[in-house]
Design brief:
Length: 339
């Protein structure tokens, strides 16, 4: 059966689009706290699991070898907007590990932050790989290569020691095998593996609690969660949903979006992980969905509730800045927690 409609978009006085999706909230044992739709279907989590991939920094010994600060760990979990503060941390990380921007294999695109992009264009500055929103993750993967004594060239390839270790880290956290039968190439050129929403949610619960993990992995995942929640700006940027949500919730919430309508994270104090996918990949609709989801399960205070309610409904504007419609989460997107 089709997943339920979790968001709708209007134009004028008529519904133009209906966005279907699914989500799962799980504890570290795999018990489902709340869910809707098919949570066993494999989806590509894309950038939403960068924090899981960052476990390789610790298993490889890179975090200790290069004395990586929390800011470097946070930027490894980021889909940053390419603002000055982001680029500075990526450069510092590359310098620490003896690498340069030319070693990044993530590809080049302009900063996602409009003001920064416009300022660079006016100054005649061409974007580089360091402005790619995945450059922090790739700097981290170069650190892993250095720590393993592996070649830094080709670290994005599936058979490279870096990607083998990253895959093992993600598998161990999710408690599920990632198979070549459900594998693709991410926007930044590393492998991306499809996994069930239930497994992804469980993985985030395990990250936030350390439950079921070896002592060294528990210490590492707690350091990763702490780095992301302590430095929320680095994980996204100005006005980004993840950054704004974590800034308001502090250590209570870890949030990370991924391309094609994915949002994942953990309600840390409750020991729950969550994973959400908008079927058609619409990011605006997915953001309204995750805002509604968090309203239902994250026990927000007054300020947090106001933020989430504001993100549950977004105005659609045309090129002349006229308000022409809205995209909003449906009632189905706000779960009822099963006790």
């Amino acid at each position: 059966m089709a997943n339920p409609v979790l968001a709708e978009a209007t134009r004028g006085n008529w519904i133009e689009n209906r966005h279907r999706g699914a989500f799962c909230v799980s504890d570290a044992s795999g018990k489902i706290i709340a869910s809707i739709g098919d949570v066993s279907h494999g989806v590509f989590p894309r950038s939403a699991i960068k924090s899981m991939q960052a476990l390789a920094l610790f298993r490889s010994g890179a975090a200790e070898k290069f004395d990586l600060e929390p800011q470097s760990i946070a930027i490894a979990c980021a889909s940053h907007l390419g603002e000055e503060g982001h680029i500075e941390v990526v450069r510092e990380t590359l310098e620490k590990i003896g690498c340069a921007e030319a070693d990044l294999e993530c590809g080049i695109h302009p900063p996602s932050h409009r003001a920064t992009r416009n300022a660079m264009r006016e100054a005649g500055i061409a974007p580089g790989a360091i402005h790619n929103n995945c450059s922090g993750k790739h700097a981290g993967m170069l650190a892993v290569a250095r720590a393993l004594g592996a070649p830094i060239k080709g670290y994005i390839e599936g058979d490279h020691p870096v990607q083998k270790l990253v895959r093992a880290c993600v598998e161990d956290l999710m408690g599920t095998a990632l198979t070549t039968g459900k594998c693709g190439t991410d926007g930044c050129s590393i492998p991306t593996w499809a996994a069930p929403l239930h497994s992804i949610a469980r993985g985030f619960a395990r990250m936030s609690t350390g439950s079921g993990l070896a002592p060294e992995d528990k210490s590492a995942t707690q350091a990763i969660v702490s780095a992301a929640t302590t430095h929320p700006f680095l994980v996204g940027g100005s006005e980004a949903f993840d950054s704004e949500a974590m800034k308001l919730f502090g250590s209570r919430l870890m949030s990370k979006g991924g391309a094609e309508g994915v949002f994942c994270g953990a309600i840390v104090e409750r020991g729950w992980g969550y994973a959400l996918k908008c079927d058609d990949g619409n990011m605006a609709a997915a953001e309204t969905m995750v805002a509604a989801l968090l309203l239902g399960v994250a026990e927000p205070d007054e300020k947090q509730r106001a933020f989430l309610e504001g993100r549950c409904k977004k105005t659609i504007r045309n090129w002349r800045k006229f308000d022409v419609g809205t995209v909003f989460a449906t009632k189905a997107a706000m779960p009822k927690v099963q006790n």
